[in-house]
Amino acid sequence: EVFDKFVPKCLSCLHRDCQQLVPQAGDPCTVQGVCRVFDAISGKLDFESMGEKMGEVLDKLVSFSCVWSIGAGLVESSRITFDQCLRECEPCYPPQASVYDYAFAADKMDFALWEERLPNPFKPPEGTPFHRILVPTVDTIRCNFILGALAKIEEAVLGVGNTGTGKTVAFQQLISGLDDSVCTSLTINMSAGTTSHATQAIIEGKIEKRIKNKYGPPGNRRMILFVDELNMPRKDLFGSQPPLELLRQWVDYKAWYDRE
Questions:
Q1: d(CA 199, CA 247)
Q2: What 3-state DSSP class applies to 84?
């Protein structure tokens, strides 16, 4: 019932009144995105112990999930329209700021401004070179939160945006904060000459055989793969980009063929 309250109206608003940076693959994929964000931020909550507050908390969780799935890739002008649509579904957000300005605080079971999470005052780590200093902003704080939450439940994330908006920095910041004893990472910078064979070889070069046909990074750890410049591989005769088709097969089926 809570999903029915928000999702159909938000999808209708998306198609009718909003402009996206990159069109989403279709309503089924968009709804999957809502569910994944919901899973990522609600995993440790005990709904049965909430009693009468459960309905209110679910409204806030689902609306927050809609913002960062259905409404995540909208241009700035369309975010105003989406904000109005979401508030019409259920006025659970405070009126003082946009829905994009609020995080869901699990400890309070309520919304709180992202800017409250900014370090005040900010002091860069001692000895950090000037060109390596990254001053936290509301954008970096909320990107790190969403990316980190989805990474914990092992969901793939596609970062979209105009050139120079800090997409690469956001992912690198997430990777730099990983616990090396639990996770490792691999970065692939794609270009027009990147092939599916080379992409597979790079990934296979960083993993080892565990049992039979199961492979993984050394030390029984998990690996986060960061692919930069995803749009760069040259299209083939049929208009597809083989390295991206390989990655999609891996995301969808968790496997690929042995080329040896």
A1: 9
A2: helix
